[in-house]
Amino acid sequence: MGVSLRSIAERAGVSLATVSNVVNGYRPVAEPTRRRVQQAIDELGYTPNLSARHLRRGRTGLIALAIPELTNPYFAELAETAIREAAALGYTLVMESTDADPDTELALLGGSRRHVVDGLILSPVRIGRAEVLARRDALPLVLIGEGVSDVPHDHIAIDNVAASHAAVAHLVALGRRRIAFIGARGHDDRQSAQLRLRGFRAGIAAAGLPDRPELTVVTDRFGRADGSAAMRRLLTLTEPPDAVFAYNDLIALGAMRAAADAGLRIPQDVAVIGIDDIEEGRYANPSLTSISPDKAAIARLAVRRLVDRIEGRPPRPPYDVQTPFTMAVRQSTAGARSGFRGPTQVEHLG
Amino acid sequence: MGVSLRSIAERAGVSLATVSNVVNGYRPVAEPTRRRVQQAIDELGYTPNLSARHLRRGRTGLIALAIPELTNPYFAELAETAIREAAALGYTLVMESTDADPDTELALLGGSRRHVVDGLILSPVRIGRAEVLARRDALPLVLIGEGVSDVPHDHIAIDNVAASHAAVAHLVALGRRRIAFIGARGHDDRQSAQLRLRGFRAGIAAAGLPDRPELTVVTDRFGRADGSAAMRRLLTLTEPPDAVFAYNDLIALGAMRAAADAGLRIPQDVAVIGIDDIEEGRYANPSLTSISPDKAAIARLAVRRLVDRIEGRPPRPPYDVQTPFTMAVRQSTAGARSGFRGPTQVEHLG
DNA sequence: CTGAAAGCGCTAACAT
DNA sequence: ATGTTAGCGCTTTCAG
User: Fold this and answer.
1) Which of A29, B93, B142, B274 is the 20 to 30 A CA-CA neighbour of A110?
2) CA A56 – C1' C7 distance (Å)?
3) Beta strands A289-293 and A325-329: pairing type?
4) Please, what sign has the CA dihedral across residues B63, B68, B72, B75?
């Protein structure tokens, strides 16, 4: 059917091995030979059959990026960089949606994709440290996000405790006293990290504010609808919050929606801050203040570390890599509702 | 290294072919035999080596979904369904970002991914009918979106002219007279479809409104920033528009941002409608009226048609398949700024 | 610097 | 109903 190494070899009057070598450059090839071969390649329009190559090499050239959902812009932005980085290193990235389902996450961890991909980048939300420690599969693995840390695997994330603490400190500096946290994961939390909640509590304590459990609302998922529902619940309190720190921007945006529907002014009546700094927040009305992780750095590091493992370069601790973050202050926590085009104030924290 | 067919065959005391048959079910296998084989598979944890399978079959089991950008929620929502559908049909979907670059689109069309994927779903934005007609490559291809139609390839999209016409009619029914269009593609437009613009003009004409070229603004891309910039330009007119029909929701959202920054009220001063019905629009403030394509249908149809081609099922016209759409009327074109939770009025148009 | 040949793991045509 | 075997296209020893 297609053009194979053999056709090129015949056309150029050389052996298979030589063609392979001009394609891959493993061994030096004399200039005149390489010329002839290259010409044959161009004329016949040869492209290597990857299945054959991978069968022979024992690798597929694919890596998987498994995330809770594609439709969360944070992950879409992350994926954009990861795809590029993977391509630059000679790999094709396939996206895998776990749908935040524990069984799917476990199956992935257990190697369900073993013969499909050479390695896996996983953003776990329903499995915890225990499951990762119990893992027997040898498929190279890199974890991202706040889900699981402190395991003998590469793990890339921001310092979630510090980031959350900073968010709360920002609200406190605004003079807010009744600060709520809308966070994800209402299920059985075994060991699964609660870093952002921990940072929130640390921030509250550091400000000398009382611990008010009724101001912490957990949600099942990470979407706008969850943020809205949680906010509506907070607004039924006799003393509703004057500020909200949301687990992520999507939740924050949902919360802002619910607050607006209730006739509240943002930030005057209630200030809102999120995490992720997705573009949507910059265009929201009011625009959303957010902790801004370096998404490109996370994606790049995750891909590189994974490829290192795949290609047998030795893992060198520390496994837990923390990437920098900043804070983008916008209307949802600003005093004046100034024009959008004004310079965005950014504090460097990472 | 890993567990292969051979290991299973030895363990179960059968031939390779038999193991292959219990795995693939091509030929009947006696129940006791199948049992033994299955047990061996379970015990040894066998998973087929896909590279080998694909080398043998001449297919990779991968299909590519090439879209302008991952970070456009419309495509993310589309991709979510496409991935699921592909998996159900035994394929893995890989996302390819063209970045709206003509060379990338051309290369894809020319078969740059030939040996990587079995087929391609492409959402073209920079290439036109001519390029698709000139294509020589045999890689199965399905087109989606308004970019290219009327070519001998499967093409899935809504009726863009009708949809745009409906959007304009909706604004006209609101009593708006100075209706602007913010659309994409400011480049050399050769043959590349301009369906939405055509529908816009038809709507204007049908309402007996004058043709006002200054109310049509083209943008280079499809993002929020483009919508904002275009809107700012429209607001410099001595007679600015009282309504805007945007090429897509992202542009609409950007336009709303710019309008709000200019102190305009939506919809009182200017009504806004988009196309795509992304979730973000439902949570925007005000929420965004939008033409709502059946994204799941588009994704499903595109994948199915592609797999039909890949597996050799004959193409049966019509090539151009139009999927239904509806209109979701929300605050950005509604009179009263009612609560978000109220029922969304939907007209069925598709 | 180049060639010959083995074999990666699987499927399918051909036997039995 | 099951077994045997050729060969998909490539990379990689081992020889020259």
Assistant:
1) B93
2) 8
3) antiparallel
4) negative
